[in-house]
Amino acid sequence: MTKAAAAEQVVTARLRSGRTWQEIADTVGAPVVWTTAALLGNHPMSAEQASSACKLLGLGDDVAEALRLQPYRVRDEAVLSDPTIYRFTEALSVYGPALKELIHEEFGDGIMSAINFQVDIARRPHPDGDRVVVTFDGKFLDYRW
Amino acid sequence: MTKAAAAEQVVTARLRSGRTWQEIADTVGAPVVWTTAALLGNHPMSAEQASSACKLLGLGDDVAEALRLQPYRVRDEAVLSDPTIYRFTEALSVYGPALKELIHEEFGDGIMSAINFQVDIARRPHPDGDRVVVTFDGKFLDYRW
Amino acid sequence: MTKAAAAEQVVTARLRSGRTWQEIADTVGAPVVWTTAALLGNHPMSAEQASSACKLLGLGDDVAEALRLQPYRVRDEAVLSDPTIYRFTEALSVYGPALKELIHEEFGDGIMSAINFQVDIARRPHPDGDRVVVTFDGKFLDYRW
Amino acid sequence: MTKAAAAEQVVTARLRSGRTWQEIADTVGAPVVWTTAALLGNHPMSAEQASSACKLLGLGDDVAEALRLQPYRVRDEAVLSDPTIYRFTEALSVYGPALKELIHEEFGDGIMSAINFQVDIARRPHPDGDRVVVTFDGKFLDYRW
Amino acid sequence: MTKAAAAEQVVTARLRSGRTWQEIADTVGAPVVWTTAALLGNHPMSAEQASSACKLLGLGDDVAEALRLQPYRVRDEAVLSDPTIYRFTEALSVYGPALKELIHEEFGDGIMSAINFQVDIARRPHPDGDRVVVTFDGKFLDYRW
Amino acid sequence: MTKAAAAEQVVTARLRSGRTWQEIADTVGAPVVWTTAALLGNHPMSAEQASSACKLLGLGDDVAEALRLQPYRVRDEAVLSDPTIYRFTEALSVYGPALKELIHEEFGDGIMSAINFQVDIARRPHPDGDRVVVTFDGKFLDYRW
Amino acid sequence: MTKAAAAEQVVTARLRSGRTWQEIADTVGAPVVWTTAALLGNHPMSAEQASSACKLLGLGDDVAEALRLQPYRVRDEAVLSDPTIYRFTEALSVYGPALKELIHEEFGDGIMSAINFQVDIARRPHPDGDRVVVTFDGKFLDYRW
Amino acid sequence: MTKAAAAEQVVTARLRSGRTWQEIADTVGAPVVWTTAALLGNHPMSAEQASSACKLLGLGDDVAEALRLQPYRVRDEAVLSDPTIYRFTEALSVYGPALKELIHEEFGDGIMSAINFQVDIARRPHPDGDRVVVTFDGKFLDYRW
Amino acid sequence: MTKAAAAEQVVTARLRSGRTWQEIADTVGAPVVWTTAALLGNHPMSAEQASSACKLLGLGDDVAEALRLQPYRVRDEAVLSDPTIYRFTEALSVYGPALKELIHEEFGDGIMSAINFQVDIARRPHPDGDRVVVTFDGKFLDYRW
Amino acid sequence: MTKAAAAEQVVTARLRSGRTWQEIADTVGAPVVWTTAALLGNHPMSAEQASSACKLLGLGDDVAEALRLQPYRVRDEAVLSDPTIYRFTEALSVYGPALKELIHEEFGDGIMSAINFQVDIARRPHPDGDRVVVTFDGKFLDYRW
């Protein structure tokens, strides 16, 4: 079973079971964004993690095995064009060059790692309508020869 | 003068003057990420903002006029391929589907606005190496007919 | 079952049953453009909506379940190249920059939301041939930090 | 002078003169969306139209001549990626197939013309925030051999 | 059954039956280019047309049903790269701008409709080798507001 | 001078002079579609042809020299997206596979040459609106080893 | 059976049978490059050719039927990126413009036909390592109106 | 001066001087295809070669210097779409897989080098029309670890 | 069985068996990078190599046969976008032009062969974190006519 | 002055001066691959580095200033298609998946950094022809939350 097929089964099983991603993450014992990404196929899970998630959702061993496989984390323009995801890319078109300037000014020539990296999401209440707050937090890496 | 030509003059003048983006933002009286994005051509400035920035950097009226123009905020694959900016896009390939699931679970069907939106950047000290922390903060918009 | 497979079943069942989209929308209790978009896979339906539509068209529970799933609303160039849809895109090439200028002049820097948004279609009789009238109606969102 | 160069001069002259697009359209004696599209290079103007617009904005005969030239109305992905314009395209990804179904159901096999066509824009006041209303109005053309 | 699958069955059945496209068109009672295009999936057939074609070729009701479905007429670069089709596109690269100039000079600003449109093909005997003559015949539509 | 620059001068000079393409073709002594294509840069002219055209339009020797140069006849997606030209391409998406089938049935495996080829354009009066009739006429070439 | 599926069966059957392409071509009674191209799906075979090839390779009638079908000869960038094929394309990037100049100088404005065309391959012994010699041989076609 | 600008000067000077590529090659003392490719910017010339070519064509030292520069031999889709060059690419779509099979059968797993490589062009008289014969001749390189 | 299907079986069987790529390479009797590339479908194996690998991993004869087939080594942008592979491509964007200059300076005009070529990977211990060291080692080929 | 314009001046000045990249690197006091990449525009230089390089090559202060600017390190497909650079990309198509497997097996889930990274090039004498040896050496980064 491919990781994509396993992800489809996870999504359907979650809908049927009524479990939240947070409940699954608590069972797996890992942060909720990481767990969701892993169950959708973008991180390999340990045997224990895969097994506990599949048990909770009533999925078989073949799904668990697929969740353990090393993923190809490919760039998929169709996925990136979904409006909920696209807004992040659009924000990068508007603010990417500014972030680049400010990273270089504060840290020097280098990048924010996307590997030594974590991302969180929170709801921020606001009188004009609640807000989605997503935090990208990665280690600075300088161009070091 | 185009906004792109104005942005080039801003970058060079800043290098020569030794001013930081924060100093320019303080002069303009606006947040530093917004100000940097505007000076690089992605937001229109008011006449006062453009004028104060150009005065600080020793730039002419033609630059100030260009900074006031309404921009086209285009998607530029070359810009997005710069490693410092690319890491954000790569993170979206890995975590975008998870963020989408979690936004829908928490808020329902909809998006984080990239218009009613602000972004901040900070340095987070860490014993293994300081970290770049970028916060995307946008109003939730639900698919509402 | 994927939403794409469910959409194919909907289209075929509608052809066989002779139902109009309006009849289906009346059964579902939602606007006709929204209902059609949802049945073609671009909006998630509630359990009641999915169930009533499937009952009317004689479709199974697996179709109803698929209609409830959260969609990926992807950009599909093949779909956009169909002449009936392409004419809208062509009109944007001709009038998009003008609409942008007029939105900015009337409302300031910002956009018409495509989320807090509705679209209607009507026939307008005309002696030279009836006309298709499509109205895009979205909340104005200003670039607000 | 190319039509693109003429359009840049129009935009800058309008900013300096403080004229609205509506005022220019009134001077030209044509609908405001059409006039704006023409001045941005997407429709050829008559000698009288070009001349009256240039006179109002203080532009030279070379600009007027360029405004009279027959345009190439090209598809420009960079322009279409501007957020204010992009939302229309995104709406087509979501609602295009539904519009296609409803056009075929109501009119038969065919298209909404983008040539025998007009587009209008209006502000619709709304307690939750005013709305941008854009109306596409084109003659129905059936596939007729 | 999809229209693409139906088209494959039509092509194979025609090869086996030895029928010409003209014979099929005569049976269907429609022009040969239109009929061929419809059987290959680019026009919807009426129930009678689909039925008579399938009867002649010995194809089942599922094929007939698929032939009645409304098509997506997509642009498929692979199909357009076939040499027999590509030569038409190449001719447009060479003569397209000239045709545009001559249409505008003769008819004014507008297009040849591809909807109110017919196309014919003929063999023209010639001592240096017979010639393929393809005639595109569409109603002129002017840009009319 | 490049052929593109020469073409721009031709187009402007023609507008100023009020000459029709047919008049220019008569002066050059060649068919009007060929002449227009050549003046727009897609065919090399003989020294006499280039010279007579430039004399009629009041253009210099550098233009004449450029018109004599061997062209690169490139595929330019922007040009092909102009609506007046695009309709031909759209027709190929709809009718290309049918034309391919009918060419093969009538002539065997091969193509209509786009080199040993001529194209004509005519106006066909019609009570419902006059029609643009474009004839592609090329020698059949069979796949012959 | 599609021509692609037939080609896969041919390739596997050839591997198992140990036959060379030359032996198959001798059986078919056609040049080896033509025969190989036809068996891989890029030329239609006569009933006799298809039958004799399938008999030699122990393949069924469905394969023979597929080999007779008229092919779509599409441009497939994946295939063209295979290193053994890519080197030819790379050579065209380096020498294509020179070949164009020399064809025009020797023959006038026109092309080497790829339809009235044959290609051969040979091994040329050389002390520094044997060489692959591929000869493209096509009829010159001039741009003739 | 860039190599592209130098190439433009070479082409124009050759037209004015009436020299053939063969005459230039004889002066340079190198094969005609190589010399033409070098003068069009795809090979670096030695100081003597550049100097002798420029002397013959009456071009300046800046052209000679540009001809000596190491080129970027880039893939340019516009150039490859010129019909005279495109036919070679089309032939690769049709015969590339067959050539790959035959190279592997005769030589084993590997490629024809495009570096240790030469290409020649000749006219082959033929009663049905003379033929363009282009020979690609490259050293076989096997995948050797 | 295709080579891609065989590769999937190899990856899963390896995970289940717990074998390392080095152990498989030792069994096959070939370098580990070569063996891994071959098992993933990018090199043809000899009958002995394929057989010994399949025996070790408990895979069938159909897998072994697929491993012997000559591969198409295609460029697959999705694979190249995986972060672990992408970093190599990114390094080429930064250092590719420098490597080109230094190859030309040291060796003359030519390339590093990717056919007469081997690649090795090693771990280099380092106090700041161990390093991945990948060595590309290919024969220099000069542009030699 | 842009960094691209500065790079052009560096390349020409180096040709005229006869300096090697190693001599320039010794003057700058940095590794030769790094220095070459920086002078071609892909790394920012310190004021001292830029100044010493420009002094050696006889270039002006404007070049030195451009060399100090922070670069955009963009992906440029034209540059990557140059044969000398392309061979590296081709090797990644063949060996990239194998390198990914071996990195994951040896180091776990993660990447070779392209930022904390150095690259070296050397000539390795060989009786069959000397070899280009390029070593990529980057810190391993594991996916660490």
From TrEMBL, chains A, B, C, D, E, F, G, H, I, J:
Active site: 87, 90, 113
Protein name: Cyanate hydratase
Domain Cyanate lyase C-terminal: 74-145
Lineage: Bacteria, Bacillati, Actinomycetota, Actinomycetes, Micrococcales
Sequence similarity: Belongs to the cyanase family.
Ranges that cross the membrane: none
HAMAP family: Cyanate_hydrat (MF_00535)
GO molecular function, one term: cyanate hydratase activity
Stored CDD domains: Cyanase_C
Root EC class: lyase
Pfam families (UniProt xref): Cyanate_lyase, CYNS_N
Summary of the function given for this chain in its UniProt record: Catalyzes the reaction of cyanate with bicarbonate to produce ammonia and carbon dioxide.
EC number: 4.2.1.104
Catalyzed reaction equations: cyanate + hydrogencarbonate + 3 H(+) = NH4(+) + 2 CO2
Keyword annotations: Lyase
Domain of life per record: Bacteria
